[in-house]
Amino acid sequence: MKIIIRLSAREEAKALPILLRHSPGIVLKNRTYVLGTEAVRALTDAGVQFTEVSREADHANLAGAASDERV
């Protein structure tokens, strides 16, 4: 599952070493990251505070939607 988070400048400084070890995530503008659940869990375990912007929908709950269809 992919989770989009946003970090403050201070929290990003704490998060970067963790992210370099745990995630092949995507970096967007304004300190926004697209990460896997393991990376988000590692940030939480390390006490890094962030705002969750979005979470990938659970495809099992999308009856009738094609696997690559936007919802």
Instruction: Specify Rg, calculated over alpha carbons.
Output: 14 Å
Distance between the termini: 16 Å
The major β-sheet equals: 4 strands, antiparallel
- Helix percent band: 25-40%
Lateral strand order in the biggest sheet: 2-3-1-4
The number of helical elements comes to: 2
The count of DSSP E runs of length 2 or more, i.e. the number of strands, is: 4
Helix and strand string, N-terminal first?
Answer: EHEEHE
Structural class: alpha+beta
Tertiary shape: globular
Give a brief outline of the structure.
The protein is 32% helix and 25% strand. With 71 residues, the chain is an alpha+beta fold.
3D structure, described in words:
The chain has two helices and four strands, in the order βαββαβ. By secondary structure, the protein is of the alpha+beta class. The chain has a four-stranded antiparallel sheet. α1 (9-22) packs across α2. The longest helix has 14 residues, at 9-22. It is globular. The two termini are 16 Å apart.
